[in-house]
Amino acid sequence: MIELHELTKRYGDKTAVDGLSFQVPQGVVTGFLGPNGAGKSTTMRMILDLDRPTSGRVTIDGKHYGQLSEPLKYIGALLEAQAVHPGRTAYNHLLWLAQSNRIPIRRVDEVLALVGLTEVARKRARGFSLGMGQRLGIASALLGDPEILMFDEPVNGLDPEGILWIRNLMKRLAAEGRTVFVSSHLMSEMALTAEHLVVIGRGKLLADLSMAEFIAQNSRSAVRIRTPHPEQLLDALATQSITAEAGPEGSYEVVDGDLVKIGELAAASGITLHELSPQRASLEEAFMQMTADSVEYHAGDALNGGVTDAAGAAGAWGAGWQPPAGKRQKKQKGAN
User: Fold this and answer.
1) Strand, coil or helix: what is 54?
2) How far apart (Å, rounded) are the C-alpha atoms in residues 172 and 291?
């Protein structure tokens, strides 16, 4: 289990991580979400002792990462898949990792087969595509057969087959009782993979709850109704003080409505229904709702030609554009 207690990291006057406290549970895939600059990568680096906290602590199965004599047997991580010597083969990259942590050499061939790189095991990393490099990084994380796995953008560069493979792999690892902690900006993929969510914004904890609870708390629910007899429907709903709003394509929606009650009311009134369905926001919509005040960098309105900040202006007017001297943003060290 990964545990964070009041974890804080500052770079000069920039606070990248601000008093984070949470646990990553075992047996489920936990999604780690936040806007750009929220502090996700910095947090993951501190878990692995690649960055030292300004204050607070983080432990892995009750120990600091530096106290683990053979860390790959405890926690496997993919933070930067391209962090491989370009002149080293896939096999030799995994071999030295195995030898450094007293992992049996046979495990190298096992993980190469698991990630689908057996045929290119003797090829040098410089010739790997982005997706192949990603698979090698995943192989490195799995090498020690650890109980804790941590992935940062694991589907980056993978084709559809690869995305399905890593999704199912993470679910299987969690089903075995392992701790799986994964950060991604792909909300659609997180919705299919994660069961639990930890959400941060501007370095602070915003949410730590199940996927279902997160969506329910950060979006409105509604019942959509479609009928060839709208006037009768509205009259029937009014008898029960139920208000229906006009929806798309001639439908009606009852915010926070009771689907069963509405269906029984329509049946009792002899009203034909062509649709009666629950409507709930997607993870992406719920995420945007929660983090609206935590987004540090906003893009311009491309459709209307509007520009909302310096970054948007640069995109609108070309790479050579520079904001006025008084409005140039400093590069934020430590933000992800």
Assistant:
1) coil
2) 30
C-alpha distances out from residue 151 to 34, 56, 133, 170, 312, Å: 15, 23, 14, 10, 30
pLDDT at 285: 78
Query: Distances in Å between the alpha carbon of 138 and those of 75, 85, 90, 153?
Result: 12, 16, 12, 11
Burial category of 196 from C-beta neighbours within 10 Å (exposed 0-12, middle 13-18, buried 19 and up): buried
Angle at 135 between CA 179 and CA 4, to 5 degrees: 30
Q: Taking residues 133-138, what's their average pLDDT?
A: 93
Give CA–CA dist 210/25, Å, rounded: 11
Mean pLDDT of the chain: 86
Q: Which of 103-107, 179-183, 281-285, 302-306 has the lowest mean pLDDT?
A: 302-306
Place of tokens 């979006």: 219
Angle (nearest 5°) at CA 37 between 36 and 39: 115
DSSP labels for 235-253? HHHHTTT---EE-GGG-EE
Distance CA 223, CA 309 (A): 38
- Chain segment 60-91, per-residue pLDDT in tens: 989 999 999 999 999 999 998 788 899 999 99
Q: What does 61-105 look like in DSSP terms, one character per residue?
A: TTB-GGG-SSGGGTEEEES-TT-S-TTSBHHHHHHHHHHHTT--T
| Sheet of 55-60, strand order | 14-24, 2-11, 55-60
| Mean of pLDDT values over 35-61 | 94
